[in-house]
Design a protein that fits this description.
With 151 residues, the protein is α/β, with parallel strands linked by helices. The protein has a single domain, classed as TIM Barrel (Alpha-Beta Barrel), CATH 3.20.20. 31% of the residues lie in helices and 12% in strands. The strands form 3 sheets. Strands 1-6 form a two-stranded parallel sheet. Strands 2-5 form a two-stranded parallel ribbon. The protein is globular.
């Protein structure tokens, strides 16, 4: 859904014009076969590594809480996720979701679906993170992109 939301090597995106064009050939083929296709939008938050981020930046997450799993990198190796930066950039992700939903529509997807777990899950957010409390703030980050992209 954005370059910043990337967390695994070799995953497809929909944040560039070239990606939209490439997806268009896929959606056209699905529609020719009388099918329907949905674009799943996802920002991985803390489940990323600096090697997957633009300019080696730390991943963006609601809190600086490092994930415990391993990340598959483009070097075909695995590494622990990088320590995320807890940042005020989280609200800007609303716009990233909105842009991705628009690009999915431009690419011919019948719908887009977003997955956002990190801002509402207590294991991913500290009690002081601006998106973790109150619960309405976290919920707004889920609802706002959808309502704006469909209006």
């Amino acid at each position: 859904m954005s370059r910043q939301g990337r967390g695994y090597a070799f995953t497809p995106g929909i944040y560039s014009d070239a990606q939209v064009e490439a997806w268009r050939s896929v959606t056209n083929a699905v529609h020719r076969a009388a099918g329907k296709i949905v674009c799943q939008l996802w920002h991985v938050g803390r489940m990323s590594h600096v090697d997957l981020q633009e300019n080696g930046a730390a991943p963006v997450a609601p809190s600086a809480i490092q994930a415990g799993e391993l990340i598959f990198l483009e070097t075909r190796t695995q590494a622990a996720p990088s320590m995320p930066r807890a940042t005020a950039e989280i609200p800007a992700l609303v716009n990233d979701y909105r842009n991705a939903a628009g690009r999915a529509k431009d690419a011919g997807f019948d719908a887009s679906r977003s997955i956002r777990r990190t801002t509402i899950c207590s294991s991913n957010s500290s009690a002081t993170a601006p998106t973790s409390t109150p619960i309405g703030t976290a919920a707004r980050l889920r609802i706002e992109p959808v309502s704006r992209s469909t209006s």
